[in-house]
Write a structure and sequence with these properties.
The strands form four sheets. The chain has a seven-stranded mixed sheet with strand order 5-4-1-6-10-7-11, with helices on both faces. It has a six-stranded parallel sheet with strand order 13-12-14-15-16-17, sandwiched between helices. Helix 5 crosses helix 6 and helix 9 runs parallel beside helix 10. Helices cover 36% and strands 23% of the residues. Helix 8 links the parallel strand 12 and strand 13. By secondary structure, it is of the alpha/beta class.
């Protein structure tokens, strides 16, 4: 029986982000609670088809990536190598770092942090039959060929959109094939004057007889190139943060503290957790620092803490009473801060914050405050392995309870999840 070729994910993160307008390389900018490169690392780390990860990083920033790898426990990462001045130079350095043993190589733009597990799996599967594979999606726009004239550009040709595809990554090859293409490119004196823009371009030019098989990509698999892309990616992460249905035994024997939800407490206990539930009826208001600290001190070390005590509001700000405004600020914002601060010395797993249901300005302000706190804490506590997430409530209590417990036993962090959306 032929042994399976190992599959290596290569994250190409050597760019400096000139179009991004930041001094920091864009792959180190945060979105949805993590740096962009860490989202990409996590995608390949979780993929069962991937055996090894190599990172090509902007020179001068490799140590920062090594810190991220060590902190996040990305055990598949074998090397972090300085990238080159161009995409093709970074790939060439990656190929040299991989050695000579045959393998599958998946070359991925590190600034495509939303690559889906399905894409990685289909690429590896396709490499069993094809030595070169690319990810692409149909073009939804009409593409024109412009012709220059003395009065400006005019349309020279309208291309057949049915045959057009937008290229994405990973771009995938047998190591021997992509190495041969690059060796020919590097030996070509004209390559530097007319470099290829990606790895498939190198194969097409220097090994034109090799067909490149296409795997369907995803509209979500965007490349973060411009500052506006950060906002798009942030929203896509909210939509894409699917919470996998948790193992019913995932909480068995775990210590869980729940503030403000009998439904979550009962469901966690049914899944075998050791539950400690507190509510205002017990004299524990989440905005009362002394009461919250006393409750947690009585529990000791805890695996998970859920703050589900929220004050919803619907309607315009002008119609809100002074009391409802004060309650929203105290319970939603101050309560989340108080629970998080008191829980930290006891916590060894994850913190889940609920944001309130409702509509209008007061509701939006409360949600924004809890979401911002979630992302900031996820970053602050990541070095200690503590995960922090938020779930937006508003659907049925039972669905919210199920989603909350599944989040606790997932590996998500820094996510703001809509309960009941996209599988959550």
């Amino acid at each position: 029986m032929t042994s399976r070729l190992r599959s290596v994910g290569v994250l190409l993160a050597g760019g400096v982000g000139q179009r991004f307008g930041h001094d920091t390389p864009k792959q180190l900018v945060e979105v949805a609670g993590r740096t962009i490169i860490e989202h990409s690392l996590a995608a390949f780390e979780r993929a069962p088809e991937i055996d090894e990860i190599v990172v090509l990083m902007t020179p001068g920033h490799a140590d920062r990536v090594r810190e991220i790898v060590a902190r996040g426990g990305y055990g598949k990462v074998s090397q972090v190598v300085d990238g080159g001045a161009s995409r093709t130079e970074s790939t060439w350095r990656a190929l040299r770092a991989l050695g000579t043993q045959e393998c599958n190589v998946l070359l991925h733009d590190a600034v495509r942090p939303l690559v889906e597990p399905r894409i990685i799996a289909e690429c590896v599967r396709a490499l069993r039959e094809h030595p070169a594979v690319n990810v692409a999606i149909p073009s939804s726009d009409t593409v024109l060929v412009a012709e220059p004239t003395p009065g400006g550009e005019v349309i020279g040709e309208v291309l057949d959109r049915a045959r057009l595809r937008r290229s994405q990554t990973p771009q995938c090859f047998r190591l021997s094939l992509i190495r041969e293409a690059y060796e020919r490119a590097m030996a070509d004196p004209g390559f530097g004057e007319r470099p290829a823009t990606d790895d498939c371009g190198v194969v097409l030019r220097y090994l034109p007889d090799v067909p490149i098989h296409l795997v369907p990509g995803s509209e979500h698999n965007i490349k973060v190139t411009h500052p506006a892309d950060l906002h798009i990616a942030e929203r896509l992460f909210q939509l894409a943060a699917r919470v996998p249905a948790g193992d019913p035994g995932g909480l068995d024997g775990r210590s869980v503290v729940v503030f403000g939800s009998a439904e979550i407490a009962e469901l966690a206990a049914a899944r075998g957790a050791r539950v400690h539930a507190f509510s205002e009826a017990d004299g524990v208001r989440v905005d009362d620092a002394g009461a919250v600290a006393k409750a947690l001190d009585g529990v000791g070390e805890v695996d998970h803490v859920v703050n589900a005590a929220v004050a919803g509001h619907a309607g315009g700000l002008a119609e809100a009473t002074v009391e409802s405004v004060a309650d929203a600020v105290s319970v939603n914002h101050l309560g989340a801060l108080t629970v998080a601060r008191a829980a930290r010395p006891h916590l060894r797993g994850s913190l889940l914050l609920h944001s309130p249901p409702g509509s209008g300005a007061l509701h939006a302000a409360s949600r924004a405050a809890v979401a911002g706190l979630t992302r900031a804490l996820a970053h602050e506590w990541a070095t200690d392995g503590i995960r922090v997430n938020c779930v937006n409530t508003g659907t049925s209590p039972h669905l919210i309870a199920q989603t909350s417990l599944d989040i606790l036993i997932s590996d998500l962090s820094g996510q703001v999840i809509e309960a009941g959306v996209d599988g959550a």
